Amino acid sequence: MNLRRPPWRLALGILAILLLVINFSILNAEDAPVDDDLEEIEELIALDEEEGRGDEWDAHAKLSDAEVLTKAQRIVLELNSDSTRRVIEQNEFVLLLGYAPWCARSAELMPQFAEAATLLKEMRSPVVLAKLDAERYPRAASDVEIKGFPTLLLFVNGTRKAYSGGFSA
């Protein structure tokens, strides 16, 4: 008497279980809210409220590294075709990062740029850190003479000055 099941029955059983798991996952995904923007806004409001309470360093201690980076990246202004010239002219000091999303060096520089923005804000520095996606806004990039990636440009009272600083926070 052979009590062993044929291997195709085992494979069929595993396949049935996988199909149930996949079907369950799909049904749960369809029930999830589609509007993630509301969740992001609520997270940003919560971070802003936490920032308003107590010492800045205490707020940083309570946040994970990813949350601190997200918060820091919000401090960096994201420029577009309409805002680039206005931000440069309305602020005494602007350090502008010209980048391309596909550029690996730009991606490496982003967290350091965000960290620098955070440090400058904590010091109450008048320097505004901004970034411009030169691929998405080529005209604005051309207007400020971004020719390669990443490019750091310093503007003082609306006038471009030579930037001789490094590429770290």
From TrEMBL:
<protein>
    <submittedName>
        <fullName>Uncharacterized protein</fullName>
    </submittedName>
</protein>
